[in-house]
Design brief:
- It is built from seven helices and no strands.
- Helix 4 packs across helix 6.
- The chain is globular and about 55 Å long.
- The N terminus is likely disordered.
């Protein structure tokens, strides 16, 4: 009986044993938080501050727009970092069209530039081909009427499919890149639309890498800019002397 009582007493003592160190430790640490926790707060403060700054930066980037074709809008860069600035001029905007412009306005300007450049590249070829090669319009016979005067000579049956194709192309472009009227502000591009990327690439020429896409986009922009100047020059030259492009060059 005494042995049983002793065993129970020892068991009870063992049961309460963990509470003594815990109590002692907590009692000893009552004054320690001021010395241990304070440095921790000092050490962690920069980290918390850095995390807050990083979070704000992420929010700002996310607020500007999503990453499209490897391009992430950056308000610290000209035109939010869109490609097209090359040596020797670099970023060239002497009239300040993009100065202090919001992202949507800059994307709209780039959309206009790249689409006009594409039209101009086709126009420069059209001037030469229409004036100097056999065409269905003129019965497969070379016709030397200057390009500026050819449209009035073309029959409506030929012009109608041409203008219909233009209207369909523009409707597809509008539905791909532009916000529908009534669903947002007028003349607004979709947030997930990259200017000029109408998803038409039948030959698979669009690069997959961000750097490669940036390079090809810059080449297209530069060729389009040159073509806009060339088309304007061709039009002016024909209006001045009434001669075709190749005819004016002596061919």
């Amino acid at each position: 009986m005494k042995l049983a009582i002793l065993s129970v007493t020892i068991s009870a003592a063992c049961a309460f044993a963990p509470s003594t160190p815990a109590f002692t430790g907590s009692a000893l640490r009552m004054s320690e938080p001021e010395t241990e926790t304070a440095p921790t707060a000092v050490v962690n403060a920069p980290a918390a501050s850095g995390e807050a700054v990083a979070a704000v930066a992420v929010e700002e980037v996310a607020a500007l727009g999503p990453t499209l074709n490897g391009w992430t809008p950056d308000a610290a860069l000209p035109c939010y970092g869109l490609p097209g600035a090359i040596a020797p001029l670099g970023f060239f905007d002497p009239l300040g069209f993009s100065k202090d412009a919001e992202l949507g306005a800059v994307k709209r300007l780039r959309e206009a530039e790249i689409m006009h450049g594409r039209v101009a590249m086709m126009a420069t070829l059209g001037y030469i081909i229409g004036e100097s090669t056999p065409t269905i319009t003129y019965g497969m016979d070379i016709h030397h009427t200057i390009a500026n005067n050819q449209i009035p000579e073309i029959a409506g049956t030929v012009l109608f499919p041409f203008f219909l194709a233009i209207n369909i192309s523009e409707a597809i472009r509008a539905s791909t890149g532009w916000v529908e009227p009534g669903l947002g502000p007028l003349f607004t591009l979709r947030e997930n639309y990259y200017p000029g990327d109408i998803r038409f690439d039948p030959f698979g020429l669009k690069p997959q890498g961000a750097a490669e896409f940036d390079n090809m986009q810059t080449k297209e922009l530069n060729n389009g800019r040159l073509a806009m100047l060339a088309a304007a020059g061709m039009c002016a030259q024909e209006q001045v002397n009434g001669q075709g492009i190749l005819e004016n060059l002596g061919f």
